[in-house]
Q: What sequence folds into this?
């Protein structure tokens, strides 16, 4: 196992590789979630009619740049979020397992869920301002706008404008929803991944390698999407709002369901699935490889006393 610092770096690099591939689906997902915000089904226009229609419409009107709006902020967010999630998961799990069972090798589902949720919440809180500006950049369209529009030139300009007009509180708008969303996803992502991995090895005789990582990641990605999507929709709307359209997570949930119906919280689900499956597969599969590379580097370059400190 890499050091905590090494695992943080390896997790961040793996996540950036994954987000490069899946970012266009994230853009479509956000626009689908914001489409028809607080409007009844009869009143709401359907500018984007699904995953592939959304991709084609954005490509036609805005080009590849439209699909990759906010990619810079996404890289920073993924480095912070997945660095924390993958870097702190194992140390938290070992510490909790040792405290409860006096043996760090014991596998406990409850401890795994707690460790996954805690590491994810830490990452979501730390990276919230970058996800905020990423969401606003992705929702912006000069041709087919949905939701509140924010004309930021780039992520740095967005952070500057939010900081100057809304202050620190504005930069952390929606952080509660982000922590709930990421806590839900993180609580099941790594435990499901390792659970699926152990079962595939035990029952199907699969050996360590890319095929096992792919199968385990696919199972994990599907479960994550099912659990995470409703709070993800709430978070997207809270991040994109200006003023006090929603006073909090439950206010946003209540207004959305009351105005648009219960299924509104699942808007953009298939776009989310199209993003989360390859993203989870790539993140966890690449994390296995980057962890090996980082561990090899640490074994070669760092003395044992330094490795114990970091």
A:
């Amino acid at each position: 196992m890499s050091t905590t610092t090494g695992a943080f770096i390896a997790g961040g690099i793996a996540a950036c590789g994954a987000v490069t591939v899946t970012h266009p689906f994230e853009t479509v997902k956000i626009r689908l979630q914001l489409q028809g915000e607080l409007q009844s089904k009869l009143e709401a226009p359907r500018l984007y009619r699904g995953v592939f229609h959304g991709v084609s419409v954005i490509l036609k009107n805005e080009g590849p740049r439209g699909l990759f709006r906010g990619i810079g902020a996404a890289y920073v967010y993924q480095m912070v979020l997945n660095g924390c999630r993958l870097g702190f998961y194992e140390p938290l799990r070992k510490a909790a397992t040792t405290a409860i069972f006096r043996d760090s090798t014991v596998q406990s589902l409850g401890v795994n869920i707690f460790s996954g949720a805690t590491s994810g919440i830490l990452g979501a809180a730390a990276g919230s301002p970058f996800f905020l500006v990423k969401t606003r950049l992705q929702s912006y369209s000069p041709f087919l706008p949905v939701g509140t529009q924010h004309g930021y030139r780039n992520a740095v300009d967005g952070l500057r404008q939010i900081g100057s007009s809304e202050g620190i509180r504005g930069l952390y708008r929606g952080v509660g929803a982000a922590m709930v969303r990421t806590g839900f996803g993180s609580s099941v992502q790594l435990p499901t991944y390792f659970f699926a991995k152990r079962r595939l090895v035990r029952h199907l005789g699969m050996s360590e390698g890319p095929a096992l990582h792919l199968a385990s990641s696919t199972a994990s990605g599907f479960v994550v999407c099912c659990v995470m999507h409703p709070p993800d929709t709430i978070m997207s709307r809270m991040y994109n709002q200006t003023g006090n359209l929603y006073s909090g997570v439950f206010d946003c949930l209540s207004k959305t369901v009351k105005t648009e119906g219960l299924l509104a919280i699942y808007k953009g689900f298939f776009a989310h699935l199209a993003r989360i499956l390859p993203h989870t597969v790539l993140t966890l599969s690449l994390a296995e490889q980057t962890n090996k590379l980082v561990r090899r580097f640490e074994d070669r370059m760092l003395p044992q006393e330094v490795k114990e400190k970091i």
Remarks:
- The radius of gyration is 20 Å.
- The chain has ten helices and no strands.
- The first helix runs from residue 4 to 34.
- The chain has a mean pLDDT of 88.
